[in-house]
Design goal:
The protein is α/β, with parallel strands linked by helices and 602 residues long. The protein folds into five domains: 2-58, no CATH class; 70-177, Glutaredoxin, CATH 3.40.30; 182-395, Rossmann fold, CATH 3.40.50.11540; 406-478, Ubiquitin-like (UB roll); 483-593, de novo design (two linked rop proteins), CATH 1.20.1440.230. Helices cover 43% and strands 12% of the residues. The chain contains 25 helices and 14 strands. The protein has helices at residues 2-11, 19-30, 35-45, 49-58, 78-82, 85-96, 138-149, 154-162, 195-200, 206-216, 228-237, 258-265, 267-281, 298-310, 342-349, 378-390, 392-395, 429-436, 483-498, 504-521, 527-540, 546-550, 553-561, 563-567, 579-590; strands spanning 70-75, 109-114, 126-128, 131-133, 180-182, 244-249, 285-290, 327-332, 373-377, 406-413, 419-424, 441-446, 452-454, 473-478. The strands form three sheets. Strands 5-11-10-14-12-13 form a six-stranded mixed beta sheet. A four-stranded mixed beta sheet has the order 2-1-3-4, covered by helices on one side. Helix 14 (298-310) links the parallel strand 7 (285-290) and strand 8. The longest helix has 18 residues, at 504-521. The protein starts with a helix and ends in a 12-residue tail after the last helix.
């Protein structure tokens, strides 16, 4: 082990800011990161064991104990439950002979729950040794376990058993379909790889590139919607030894999978967009931060980058522009939704816990390695190529005045045609439902759990920054679904699990609100409980980052738009609050940080 760990650390230049890569390689080599490995890593990197352990403990996919020769992670999203997740879970437990959260006595198989893995259009889905299996059924589960017992490799399970391979590239070796249902300027087949960096950039100055991006009025496609041109301009003007370009591909919002499809179908477009951004801000280094759930894409994306280097689309003097040197590397996360927040992503990139930073300073001034940094979404970089290719004025012809261009949607749930759709901003929800074949709809979750749950009386609303802003997730729920129990509760438990625990508001109030929701669902709710939930939702908004600020949205938006569902569960003849409910909730949430207050003195 000592020699192996040393080789892994040396592979990354003994650089402790590359701790994420080092830990990933260590776990994939040994199956887990035990105490001996921690001691060796700390010594080799000149770090304390505490610092190594705190990074390990933060991420879902790191483990200090063996998780089995075959580690099976079954998606626990709301949509997975809608399409048979419980039956699949029971089949795994029956065939393997253990419960979820356990490993077989022989160390062969481990069963684990995990949050949304970006496969909402093909549920239920699971990850087995970094390979994705979709559309699972009890029969498929039996086949998988049968082949595992026979000692077959995961790739063999896909190819020999039931991998359909449709719309998929051989090097991905995963049972994943792209499900592109509607194409626009980004997903169009007329993209000519490298045409902008080869033919257009040499004729433009960096300032001219930024001017076109600003003229297009494009806003970030990840959800926050900050003007992209301004971000690039601020970063170019910021003083620093280096400037960095970061692509946020950590799409952990349940129901979102568009970035996975873009990177599968148009990876060159994304990397070219990053290259254009590098030229514009004066950077020579870009990093694609990709969620660990998409680890199966590593070999494929590395092949694309290698091809681009060979064709001078990356490397030295790109496009014949003297002095324009730029390259891209891939950095994987390890399972943490909060790392989708830009400053938490930077912390993770630097090998630390993905806890959001205080702002200011903003990343454009002091970001990755304390240097000026731009962070944009996969879709934003892909769109930037089209803008530079055709001009900012051309881009403003699409969408609306305040929401220019197109938006790629990840649509899933109760509809005939789930998948990826590229539409113009300004598209309304009713038209979207007709487009995907969704009928007798009870509600639509716009923007994932952190967004808004709307009912039929709001289906006339349009997608755009002045009305319904969304990073792309659209989940449809038919009238047969129990919105409060099967959807809202699932979303709240997701936020509890994904909170970094840094802010007391996010750490405590998500648990308190969820317990109150459970009380109502159990038929013990009173009118005051609804008022409490509304007030506690406001408390959450004092959290430091977007996760905490929106963590109460599943309850708050459903209270607003689906009040009759709550009213039907409230005891009409009582108007008291069980005080122990709040006390127990706070005690339970405080266990998260090892501090349990003693309420007996009060």
């Amino acid at each position: 082990m000592k020699n192996t760990v040393k080789q892994i650390v040396e592979k990354y230049g003994n650089d402790k800011t590359r701790l994420m890569d080092i830990l990933i390689d260590t776990q994939e080599t040994f199956g887990f990161i035990g105490q001996e490995a921690v001691e060796l890593l700390a010594h080799q990197l000149g770090m304390s064991q505490v610092d190594v352990n705190q990074t390990i403990s933060f991420y879902h996919f790191f483990s200090t104990k063996p998780r089995g020769e075959y580690a099976i992670y079954l998606n626990d999203s709301a949509v997975a439950h809608m399409f048979g997740r419980q039956a699949v879970k029971e089949a795994f437990e029956k065939e393997v002979g253990i419960k979820f959260g356990e490993v077989t006595a022989d160390g062969k198989i481990g069963l684990f729950n995990t949050a949304c893995i970006g496969m909402n259009d093909q549920e239920p889905a699971a990850i087995i040794n970094n390979k994705v299996f979709t559309r699972l059924t009890p029969y498929r589960v039996r086949e998988i376990i049968k082949h595992i017992r026979e000692g077959r490799k995961v790739e063999g399970l896909i190819n020999e058993s039931f991998g359909d391979g449709k719309n998929q590239l051989p090097s991905l070796r995963a049972m994943v379909s792209s499900n592109i249902r509607r194409k626009g300027m980004i997903l169009s087949d007329d993209y000519v790889y490298g045409s902008v960096t080869r033919d257009i950039l040499p004729k433009m100055s960096p300032e001219a590139v930024i001017a076109e991006i600003k003229h297009s009025h494009i806003r970030g496609r990840g959800g926050a919607g900050f003007p992209t041109g301004l971000k690039w301009e601020f970063c170019r003007r910021a003083k620093g030894e280096k400037h960095f370009v970061l692509c946020n591909a950590d799409e952990g919002e349940p129901g979102t999978f568009k970035d996975r499809v873009i990177l599968t179908e148009k990876p060159e477009l994304v990397f070219e967009g990053m290259t254009i951004a590098g030229y514009a801000i004066g950077s020579d280094e870009g990093v694609l931060y990709l969620r660990y759930e998409y680890r199966y894409m590593k070999e494929y994306l590395e092949q694309v980058l290698a091809k681009m280097r060979a064709e001078n689309q990356l490397g030295k003097n790109i496009g014949g522009i003297e002095g324009f040197d730029f390259d891209i590397r891939i950095q994987f996360g390890a399972g943490a939704y909060v790392c989708g927040e830009e400053s938490a992503l930077i912390e993770s990139l630097e090998g630390k816990r993905g806890e959001p930073r205080d702002k200011p300073p903003f990343p454009v001034e002091k970001g990755y390695l304390n240097q000026p940094t731009i962070i944009n979404n996969v879709e934003t970089f892909a769109t930037a190529v089209r803008i530079v290719q055709n001009g900012g004025e051309w881009f403003t012809q699409f969408g609306t005045e305040d929401s220019t261009g197109t938006k790629i949607l990840s649509i899933s749930g109760d509809c005939m045609f789930p998948g990826v759709y590229e539409v113009n901003w300004g598209f309304n929800v009713a038209d979207m439902l007709n487009m995907v074949g969704a009928y007798d709809v009870q509600g639509v979750q716009v923007g994932g759990p952190s967004g808004t749950l709307i009912g039929p009386d709001e289906f006339h609303r349009t997608l755009g920054y002045s009305d319904l802003s969304t990073g792309g997730s659209m989940i449809i729920f038919g009238r047969q679904r129990n919105l409060l129990k099967d959807v809202v509760l699932n979303f709240m438990e997701f936020f509890i699990e994904e909170s970094c625990g840094s802010c007391s508001t996010c750490r405590n109030m998500t648990q308190v609100m969820t317990n109150k929701l459970k009380k109502i669902l159990n038929g013990k709710g009173v009118a005051k409980d609804l008022d409490d939930l509304k007030q506690w939702g406001k408390v959450l908004q004092a959290s430091r980052c977007g996760l905490g600020q929106t963590a109460g949205n599943p309850i708050i938006s459903s209270l607003k738009n689906f009040a009759p569902l709550y009213d039907a569960l409230i005891q009409k003849d009582k108007d008291f609050d069980e005080g122990f409910d709040l006390v127990a909730s706070v005690q339970n949430s405080c266990k998260y940080v090892g501090r349990v207050p003693n309420f007996n003195h009060h």
